[in-house]
Amino acid sequence: MDPTNLKKGPSPHYSLYQREVFRAGGEEGRLPTFSVHAEEMPEETKATLTNRGYFYANSNAGLGWTDRANRDAFFRWRIIPRMLVDTTTRDLTTTIFGHKIPAPIMFAPIGINKLYTPLGELVPAKIAGELGIPYALSTASSNSIESVAAANDEGAAVKNESNSVHQYSGPNGGNAQSPRFFQLYMGHDDEITISLLERAWKSGFDVCMLTVDTWQLGWRPTDIKIANYVFYYPGAVGNEVGESDPVFMRKHGDELEKDSGKWIDSSVWHGKAHTWAKMPWLIKEASPLLAWKRISGGRPFVIKGIQSVEDALKAYEVGLEMLPEIAEAVGDKMTILFDSGVRTGSDVFKAIALGAHAVMVGRLYVWGMSHQGEHGCRHVMKSLLADLDITMTVGGFRSITQDVYRNKKVLRYNPSGVAPGPDEHARL
């Protein structure tokens, strides 16, 4: 694509990143150090990570059939392109919880990022800020809430200095840092929960995302093989949010010195499920303390992990196989964020067409920073944006919200076949 022949549009020309990579190789002999092919990246991380890091990034619950089913579901939906449409400029922007963002893509909450790069969550938080894309921080972070917020602000400052043409607005209008979500694993000590929420709000996290499908860690055979539970090892990472919390440390600091698993066992994957009866307390009530709606002045509360239509009528977050049914059931009454198995620009396109407002990306950015830290994370996310932009361009779609969102006419369902895995790709 000739950049001198392009006019400015609602979105940056993300597709030019492909040209940038090609020219760096052709003119300077500077090649990428790792593949952004989604089937090749995880295997290549074996050369850059310890066994613990590799298996924690790539393990699945059980035999991994759900992970494979998510990829198969994307495979069965095919995009139907339209020809002779002027897509010289595209509009990938959308609005999530009052934030106008440059593309319907978010950084999913993933814990203990120091397994993948020494700076941990500071890396994706900074890149999210640079790109203006929402970032979600895990309660199991290996950095404090406050330090991650500062890294996100740093990235946003870089974006604002280098790209003043494409500014995106916050819920109160005007320019703002990229939206920040705080993903909450809610233990059974309400005082600690309130402390975490107050810290998140003070640090600029203005959406609370409660995970409800992981009261305890799933059964992960590949991790069990090497006893891969980093929280129990000396000098463990993953306790940083607890260690930096004044309420938790006042109550359990002495215990944490003796048992490095105290934070994760009591406040994160505690094994004692909450019920719907607890939700009004967390969202609205909290006498005599303050819960999220009061702390934040009414900012959004999201439930993460919902996969049934019945539960979707009470919550906001879905899984892929159920996405069309849930989108049909709740329509635009709720904001639907899809999180599972997103690897490519066409995956993003398909999820939006099936009714998601935005998608969350996790393993992609983990693989990227596992290779080259900040540069690797940036390379993977800019590649995903370029892939989505090119899909829109060659597919004949100008606007992600007007031409794609909840438009199943742009897709065709193929009920047979499964997506080829890495071995099959190698033989093609």
From TrEMBL:
InterPro entries: Aldolase_TIM (IPR013785), Alpha-hydoxy_acid_DH_FMN (IPR012133), FMN-dep_DH (IPR000262), FMN_HAD (IPR037396), Glu_synthdom (IPR002932). Keywords: Flavoprotein, FMN, Oxidoreductase. SUPFAM superfamilies: FMN-linked oxidoreductases. Its cofactor is FMN. The keyword Ubl conjugation does not apply. One of its GO terms (biological process) is glutamate biosynthetic process. Pfam families: FMN_dh, Glu_synthase. Glyoxylate binds at Y56, Y185, R220. PROSITE patterns: FMN_HYDROXY_ACID_DH_2. One of its GO terms (molecular function) is glutamate synthase activity. FMN binds at P109, I110, G111, S138, Q183, T211, K304, D339, S340, G341, V342, R343, G362, R363. It comes from the Eukaryota. Residues 30-413 form the FMN hydroxy acid dehydrogenase domain. Belongs to the glutamate synthase family. This is FMN hydroxy acid dehydrogenase domain-containing protein.
